[in-house]
């Protein structure tokens, strides 16, 4: 019925009574005037701003016209020399509102999901169509005929519903608007049509323009029809009886300026109608000024061969001769066309013309030929168009965008709704199926669901905010309306869904609240505003009360308000917060009454704050009922990690809370989600996240708690199973590029968030995460046949990552600029990289170190940014193509020799062009075709012959600034990415259909490509989109999985001899089955190649967990072994990779998704967020060849128990003595810390009291009663493990290999004497375990996975008794207590018993079958019980009980959730320690009885007596015989004393688990503070080096530190200032144990800082070279100095100065040194705001460095014994310390050094100078005598040394090791032999007891 009353046409202005302005509105200068041409009244709309002067129909945007006519006729005339805009709001059949705009203001065509913008070119501009130009002076009245149905169908693939609204904006004259389902011809009246009997529809008289007698309509008016419904091919207009006005033309072409000053051409795209051609005169070569299809005069015309695309941006047509003839029967007139120009789609009005004949000619002078299409006189048959649609969005990887706050449960608790930038995703948590809500054009800022999940509301972020109302179940948009709020930040529905509220800021920045009525939205009605109000209160959270939809509540900074909707107004009243009025509130929730009463007075409101407070608010009394606070630390005396109640004290910031009838979920800034009962008595459950929690939401049934984090993670906690499920992981910034791996179905992405992530393409779950804090990755590529990932970084580094060993294989720094492109040949032979400075590098992937073959400069275009298509390699691996050396050139070279094959200047390919076109992106076509596709800035794709460089064809109409190209196999579909859309084109060259546009990205698409199986498309930008290809491209085999071309095929299983593995070849070796190969495990045998699953590409069983490295850096030596196979069998020769090394700045490797973590070598101790790298120096470990490791597999086992040495870039010094134990020289006083990276590296014997552990390369023997230490030195490298003989007389310690000792060093220590009596060496890489036999007659040593050798030594002579090579890694070994010669090993696939017999040195092996419960896991630990019991722990957390007499497993139980690394048994008790940080005590009294039952007892449950939670994975443990007390070591670098009787754990030894960056001393010298990479600041007593206080900042690294000087003699005013990696500066009050203030003076990481002499000012420097002066008292930064900008500040020091000293004013003298060898000295008087430069020192950089590319740090310090001297190091050309006189302005003394200094300190008590080197040497120089002494005690570079202000103490640091020295004097140079043990008396003061240490966490 709606169409009946609108038929045959509707006068819109008359129907809506525009003259009365009741159903329409006007704004600005709108007036009714009389037009002389039409002789009728028209409306004039004018004004300088179009948006402020308009006529709008209907009156408000919430109403609708409801006009269903297909055609809209706009009768208007643009005002001369002005711009105009016409907006149409069109509703689709699914209620999607699309805005269609036409304007001569637009410069290009733009398309989004909800907006189409068409440039309008007026008629007189066709000779020079300047886009965006004003209307010309002679512009005429125009009839604009718009086919709304075709516009939506062609450009958005949507179906037209009705016209919703129209807005006519200045500057124009408008007569009227009409709608109709009929296509009228405005040039023919009804009478003319009847007389001529024309088969057309004439225009009604009411709509007709007046035509003077004897004149033609087209002489006075213009008809623009957009678009036409004709799909006929291009052909000349023929003489016919049909009127010429009905002729239609179609051409897919492009527009381009013409050389020689000729006018540009105007082309006609598909679906363009010409209403009336003009009579043409005779002549050849004359211009067609009247036809928009032709060039101007003296221009040739040739239609190009075009694929059947459309609508497309045009391309210049040249080389055509044409004749002009008068068409008989022409009524004259001017055609209207739609032109798709060089910059988009344009609406063009023009005068008429016609083509009668077209002939083809070859342009003169053209050397390259093109295929051309000659239009025939007869129509060509219509070709098949693209399948519709080709793509369908399947999955999206991403979360957030505008914020990470919004994630909602549906009513049934089965689906989670969340935004991913501009897409709203509904994710089913069980099936992981995604459903999408598309329509937003920018990031979604807020979401809301009603009570029954029927309505979904979403707001679009950037102003002006647009709100969409969705039918959630149907997935359709019900309403689209603009919010009066400028930027919406929150949305909330009432339970019934009838009221929707939103809050945000208006245009003036004031907070605004709006309420809408949505009850009519589902019935086709409009969304009306119920009320709105402004408020000065801040609003962070807003919610409509569930019990009353007229009541709301909001909270924000210092505000909690209750709102009430009455009539059309919103009123609010504040809550009396009392003493809590200054809190910053972040979230709120209503606590429902227990009796179900719905009265408002019975409900309590909970609000949370950033200070950790949770307030209960009485809604009736508007007052606070109760206040609680969440604390970060446990109360004193409580067990470790016990959950705290809410009391007073410093709080944890709470970001969100949610309440169910039984519990309250709280999300906080410390990364925890906690569940509390409603009385908040104790924590019920908690889950730790990888970042601060941004929101929590309890499901309606209360069984699941949804949580989101600021790092883009989304997951939920299952309350019943206590399991946390991760739903979404995402990048937090733009994804720049991606790469796919076909055999393993993996996807790698790089992002601006400095992360590299590897995903499983099948499940879209994240597998690995590599992160780098210093430089962002820009390019990525997979090796085609090996699990190797190549990545290029912004710093010019290319790194290769092993996805098997989870390690950095190699790194090259050969580029000066950022790496912008990577490409690997499909055969895996070569890798290519290019940089932003034009450099191109070629690498040999067949070489183990992927060495550089060639490096050339000025090859690649330097103007291009990072792009996935910068480099491209042909499918046959022969050709490499790139854009360069300029943007106009495309070059192809040979991949092997880099010899140039051809170079094409694309700017000369079209001689008709007047502007130079540049190449944007390139790609090769799939084999066997040999084409290179080049997308140009002229919106074309040039198809070049890859062999010769000749142009084959030219494809027009490609979107501008295409960022990526991809061509499917079989060359069916072409993908282009640009702006925020993806376009799919039909690639075969034939005229016909056009492209399809797919939207969803809110940011420009960076890369697009087909997946290897050609069945899906990947696109990246703001997120990762996966599209299903619904039309399978031709040539894709059904069910096939395509691998990269050139990949080696998989052979059949056959005996083989394994060859060394290179980066270009892979041998997959499978282990032999026990039942088929019963021979000895130690004997060599044949190896077989493992067949891959043709569908999954997996080797045998898939991994259940992601491989977890114990270290993100490289192993200890460079001769590691590399293999790409997960499982390896016995081979005579195993593959190995020489020189796998990692260099400075390598990214951090983080494992995701398993919930477990490796050992202590990580960024934060016990941190499940990942593994952090120790600090890298710019040196390489020397390559060592260890022949005994040749046959070892190189795969890091999936076991944290397995030892991997810390990566050290420094080398062990030669000939440097160890510090003496006694005497008057420098003496090692104390060692702070324990090496949590070791395995079983702590021993304790309760009967003798002997207690020893390792720290770096030291063995520390400590008296637990007195606290005194002995330090045994003898190892050159890190100690991996310790073993103590049963009689406690001999201690064995093992270290890794080094440049000094090419094999591992085993030291045998005499415990009573404390001396090293023997050195042993046999293993090549590292030693995993040591064990003494029960009679102490044998010592067993076991190599790690790089060595895999087992050796037995006689303890009488310490000679080698027997040795064997194991062909699979073994994690642990133990001697049987009943038989001295029986040795048991556990590892990957078997339990092995080795029995030495008599004098026979050979070992006999009995291999036991592994229980089926082990599955794909491994046995990781073992211990013997009462004979014949043996207990084994597994990587899956199970314990297996073994009967060694019958060789069978009779019992198994689940002892933990993660891998068990430590097992100890004594009597009827068993202790297990695992990766989950738990230590458990088990009762084993019933095990002997269960052994008699046999296998029937296998599932019997065991009784756990007690459990303790520690701070890291358990790596070592020792207990007494009763198992009542013991000592336990964790990967966090902590040793705990455990008492099962008391159920407590107490710190024995504490240390940093990551690099120590700074040490600062208190003015009195009684305490010191240390800063670490893990974000902690720890305060120690210098007398005993006991930890007394710790401040912890989450997710940041503490890089610098300063202790304030005494202030007016008040020790309680002493403060410690710390600088962090995010640019913040925090000041801690020591006496009060609190953070005093937090400031943010820098945008980059702070690197140095100092207090002024009065303690009231802080001077800080950052990584960018800025120096800031801040006042901690006020929190203000008063001055910023940029003199050192561009180089990091490496040192800042300040001291007091006499007034007038050095001839300058001021009371302070301070210096700043930067990394560019510059030092500035300043005098200042901060209270007077005075700062003056005293001196400026600039030195040349060293020309020749031992480590190229690594500049020594610039160090400077004031000399404490001479106030006029300045000590500098790292400045100048030589290795020396310079003493510079500030008075004489010159260097007065040079102290030579044998190395460049990396740390420097001067003693204030004596003339002593301490210098640390990158080669682990500490040099102490007596400046009075010139005597120097070198000492070595650290296991890494001495990057920090600091003298105490009082006393002779010196603290040095290397990585996380802290050594305290006592410098009493210097004797003659000398030292002990290289491996002689030494023993110190120990100077550590006795500590009566250890109490709970205060630890404060901050965010």
Biggest sheet layout? 9 strands, mixed
Please mark out the parts with pLDDT under 50 across 5 or more consecutive residues, or reply none.
Answer: 229-384, 635-648, 910-915, 1037-1193, 1866-1893
Radius of gyration based on Cα positions: 39 Å
What class do helices, strands and sheet pairing give? Answer: mainly beta
Q: Would you count the extended β strands for me? A: 137
> Helical content, roughly?
under 10%
Q: Report how far apart the termini are.
A: 64 Å
The average pLDDT score comes to 76
Oligomerization status of the protein chains = single chain
- Percent of sequence in beta strands: 35-45%
Q: Name the overall outline.
A: globular
Number of helices: 5
